[in-house]
Amino acid sequence: MSDQPQTRSAADRLDLVLCNELHWEAPPELTACLLGLIPGATSFIVSPPPRPKSWYSLLVLTLTAVAIGLSLAVAWQLYNTVGTEFGLAASFEQLRNAPLLGLQRLDEALPASRPAVAVLVALRDQLHWLLLALVLWLALDGWQPQFKRTVTSG
C-alpha cells in the first residue's frame, strides 16, 4: 500500500504535463479566417478586453507600494512601542545570549568538554545559515513548476 501514493503522485504529475502539452490555441488569424467563411459569423468574434493605459497601471502600482510601505511603517512603530513597553528587547537579548552562557558554564563545569564546546561555538556562528537553508527547503519542497506551452506561428 505504500506504493500507491507514490504511483498516484506520479500519475498526477503525468496528467499535469499531458494537459499542458495537449492544450493549444489556434492563432487569431486562423480563427478570423475560419469565421469569415461562415455567413453571419461576425457576431461570434470576441475582441479581447481592453488593457488599462500604462499611466493607470503605474498609478495603481505606486499607490499600492505607498500603502504597503505605510502599513509596514505603522506596524513597525506599533511593535516598537509595545516591545519597549514590555521590555521585549532585553528579553530577546537574553535569549540570544543564553546558548553562549550555557556553553561557558559547561566549559567551567567540565573542562574535559572544551573540544566539544569549541565545536558548538563554531557551529553557533553558522546556525543562522542552516536555519535559512531549512526554511527555504521547506518552502520550496512543495513547489511544482507550472508548464505553459506557447504556440509560435511561422
Notes on the structure:
The protein is mainly alpha-helical. It contains 5 helices and no strands. The protein has helices at 3-22, 28-36, 54-86, 88-109, 114-141. Helix 4 (88-109) crosses helix 5 (114-141). The model has no long low-confidence stretch (mean pLDDT 80).
Strand segment tally: 0
Task: Give the strand content.
Answer: under 5%
Average pLDDT value? Answer: 80
The end-to-end span amounts to: 50 Å
Count of separate DSSP helical elements: 5
Major beta sheet, specifics? none
Helix content: over 70%
Task: Spell out the helices and strands N to C.
Answer: HHHHH
Q: Give the class from helix and strand content and strand pairing.
A: mainly alpha
Indicate the multimeric state: single chain
Q: Which blocks of ≥5 consecutive residues have pLDDT under 50?
A: none
Per the principal axes of the C-alpha atoms, what is the gross shape?
Answer: elongated
Query: For the CA atoms, what is the radius of gyration?
Result: 30 Å
